[in-house]
Design a protein that fits this description.
746 residues; alpha+beta; seven-stranded antiparallel beta sheet; 18 helices; 39% helix; 21% strand; rod-shaped; binds adenosine-5'-diphosphate
Length: 746
């Protein structure tokens, strides 16, 4: 049977209950309440002169003397004894054996573990020498310029203190795999620097133990485990939890693994950052077994504590210059945006430098439906689809170094963009910035094949895992991944997002306020124009009728000159009436509520054309090109718009054969309608003027006269629909007036 199984199966192995210890010490398990010996390691005679049988059921005084018992009692009552082991007194064993260090720790289930380790006289004597060395090291660590230098120094010092053949600093990545980031190694041995270890090489239970205790020591990989007698604890009727025991027997997986690497002894300390396992310092001996005495072990532990504390500061300094540059770029950009009135459409073009301060291969800006790309990015359509996907997510900042894992369509463009750092201004809209990083065909050196299952020995009833037998250098090209984004990059993007979102909010509020003010003043103007024209009409009508009466009654008595003057007054009042009427209509268009409904423009145009009949008599042909759309609009207003444009097309036309075409441009959104003529045309410089009220380009009576308000009223009706109108013309050949009835891109 060759099951598909890998080292993660080791995750299930109960490493904290081995029921045995390593032989470089002895273990006594006591009942915390009575301090009675309940279990002893089988090698107890070597340390205490008595085999387990002679110890079990005895009080601790008998085995270790009154002083140790008193110390232990005191610590237990003062609750000083925690789960992490504490060194008690050094004792001369009553059985005449050698003097020992005694360490005590308590378990969660009411037991006390006493661990004995022989005193090493040479180490005791040398201990005071360790202090100045550690002190100097701490000073040098503090001034290490970079994180790399910091760890180079750490491993070199630890090797100097311990004399191990190899000391490595090992850093975990987010996925649990690790990398050797610093190494000090005896000359002649192969280097492991830069090697990556798959996550499965340090299974989860081992990780947990690493974060519980600072130090783990394995003096001899080929040791014979020493069992506890009896195997199960009489009090708990279960194997003892040896999580905090430093003598704990290790997993066979681990020793097998080390043997494959040619390692004879190890010492591992933990590096914690913000209370979490950040990495390890791993010491290895290849020449033979190596037992590190208590004193240098404490020095290493002390260094590991200090390194963990100092490391946080060093890691923050790691990208200091870059972090500063990003901060400055962000400030520059936000300042510029504060001044700008267009937000943030012109962002990329004008401030590309501030966006490219972030170390990315390409950047995309999506603003008001417009997409701008800079550098290496996926294609327009791909970025739009990606932005739409992001808009459907709840978070406003999205970061990944393997985009296709979250967003499978990205596999199609992973060479250009495996990494993505994206921010959006607000929920529900795709507008925002996207930074892309190319795929990093990073060649990683793996110490073992991370994808290859380890060999399984299924000969026994139980599945047993065998460690890998081959540690040939594995190279794995990581496909679909980019370099990872740094914390300071993420910070830059999120801060920039916040700044822009605030500016946008301020901007929209400003716009809203201006619109409100504008609407109010427009309304006022319309009301005024309406009132004024309405009020003016009456006296004007009075003047007109009076003059008519005067002419009727007394015309014969007046001189020719007098009659002509009366006629002029009548003509002028008529004209004034026309102007006032136009003004009234104009103000009405602004005041009325639009009656919006689905309107078939074919019908509207057909009805409008009827009012111009008979066209043939005027030498005109009007054609509607294709089908006009059905749109949501105000039927009456749109009828007036067409009427005005058609009437102008007929009026400003000196051709014998007047051709007028009405239609709708293909594919535009919103639909663009047009009225085209082959008339006199309009010079470009007058394009704006013709839409102003009472502006005419011709003599008062040329081309049938007119008040000069038709186009202004049409424009107002169009703008009330949210649309716009514009003209294109060739003088002498004709004009085309185009308009929309809804808002859309300019
Ligand atoms: P009116 O027709 O009453 O003068 P409009 O506002 O409709 O007022 O038009 C303004 C001016 O624009 C017109 O006086 C004319 O000079 C010019 N104009 C409008 N339509 C056309 C057209 N189809 N061809 C040429 N000129 C035009």
């Amino acid at each position: 049977m060759q099951a598909q199984i890998d080292l993660s199966n080791c995750d299930r192995e109960q490493v904290q209950y081995p029921g045995a210890i390593q032989p470089h010490g002895a273990l006594l398990v006591l009942d915390a309440a009575t301090l009675c010996i309940q279990q002893a390691s089988a090698n107890s005679a070597d340390y205490l002169g008595l085999p387990p049988a002679g110890l079990l059921g005895q009080g601790i005084e008998g085995a270790l003397g009154a002083a140790v018992a008193a110390d232990l009692r005191e610590r237990l009552s003062a609750e000083q004894l925690s789960t992490s082991f504490t060194r008690l007194l050094a004792v001369q064993s009553p059985g005449g054996g050698q003097a020992c260090h005694v360490f005590a720790s308590r378990t969660d289930d009411g037991l006390v573990l006493l661990e004995l380790e022989r005193l090493d006289q040479a180490a005791r004597v040398g201990a005071p020498e360790l202090y100045p060395g550690v002190h100097l090291t701490l000073q040098r660590l503090q001034s290490a310029p970079t994180l790399a230098a910091f760890f180079d120094l750490t491993v070199a010092e630890i090797r100097a203190i311990t004399g191990f053949d190899r000391v490595m600093a090992y850093r975990f990545a987010a996925d649990g795999s690790g990398e050797v980031i610093a190494e000090s190694v005896r000359a002649g041995l192969e280097t492991y620097l830069g090697l990556h270890y798959p996550a499965a090489d340090i299974p989860e239970p081992a990780r947990r133990l690493f974060s519980l205790t600072w130090l783990r020591h394995l003096p001899d990989v080929d040791y014979a485990p020493v069992p506890l007698v009896p195997e199960r604890n009489p009090l708990t009727a279960a194997p003892v939890d040896l999580s905090w025991s430093f003598l704990r027997s290790v997993s066979e997986m681990y020793t097998g693994y080390l043997r494959n690497m040619g390692v004879k002894a190890t010492l591992v300390t933990t590096l914690l950052k913000d209370g979490k396992l950040w990495g390890l310092i791993s010491c290895m001996h290849h020449a033979g077994p190596k037992c590190l005495p208590y004193e240098p072990r404490v020095a290493v532990e002390c260094l590991a504590h200090m390194v963990s504390l100092l490391m946080a500061g060093k890691a923050a300094e790691e990208h200091g210059g870059y972090r500063l540059a990003l901060g400055a770029a962000r400030a520059r950009l936000l300042d510029a945006l504060l001044e700008a009135d267009a937000l943030p459409a012109a962002l990329i073009e004008t401030h590309a430098d501030a966006l490219t301060a972030l170390d990315a291969d390409g950047v995309a800006l999506l603003a008001d439906g417009r997409l701008s790309l800079l550098g290496k990015t996926p294609a327009q359509a791909e970025v739009r689809a990606l932005a739409a996907w992001l808009a459907g997510r709840s978070e406003l900042t999205f970061v990944t170094h393997a985009l296709a894992a979250d967003y499978p369509p990205a596999a199609a463009f992973q060479a250009a963009a495996s990494g993505l750092l994206a921010v959006r201004w607000s929920h529900g809209a795709p507008d925002g910035l996207l930074w892309f990083r190319q795929e990093w065909r990073q060649v990683v050196h793996w110490a073992g094949d991370p994808s290859k299952p380890v060999e399984i020995d299924a000969s026994g009833a139980e599945i047993r895992l065998l460690p890998r037998t081959s540690f040939a250098l594995w190279r794995e090209a990581v496909a679909g991944e980019s370099r990872r984004w740094l914390d300071c990059e993420l910070e830059y993007a999120t801060e920039l997002r916040r700044g822009i979102a605030e500016l946008l909010l301020r901007h929209t509020e400003q716009l809203r306020r201006m619109n409100r003010e504008l609407a109010a003043s427009n309304e006022e103007l319309d009301t005024f124009a309406y009132a004024a024209s309405h009020d003016l009409k009456e006296p004007l009508r009075g003047i007109h009728t009076s003059v008519e009466f005067l002419e009727e009654d007394d015309g014969a008595r007046l001189s020719t000159e007098g009659r002509e003057r009366l006629a002029t007054i009548l003509r002028l009042t008529t004209r004034m009436d026309e102007l006032i009427e136009s003004l009234l209509q104009y103000s009405r268009v602004g005041r009325i509520d639009l009656q919006l409904q689905q309107v078939d423009l074919n019908e509207v145009v057909a009805q409008t054309l009827e009012t111009f009949a008979p066209l043939a008599a005027r030498g005109a042909t009007v054609r509607v090109l294709g089908r006009l759309p059905v749109l949501e609009c105000d039927r009456v207003r749109v009828g007036e718009i067409f009427s005005n444009l058609i009437s102008n097309a007929l009026k400003y036309n000196d051709k014998a054969d007047k051709q007028i075409e009405i239609g709708c441009d293909d594919g535009a959104s919103p639909p663009v309608l047009f009225v085209r003529d082959n008339g006199i045309g309009i010079a470009e410089k007058h394009y704006a003027r013709i839409f102003q009220i009472f502006r005419r380009l011709h003599g008062r009576n040329d081309f049938g006269g007119g008040a000069g308000a038709g186009l202004t009223i049409a424009r107002k009706a169009i703008e009330r629909h949210g649309g716009r109108i514009w003209v294109e013309s060739v003088p002498g050949q004709g004009s085309v007036f185009r308009f929309t009835l809804a808002a859309g891109p300019r």
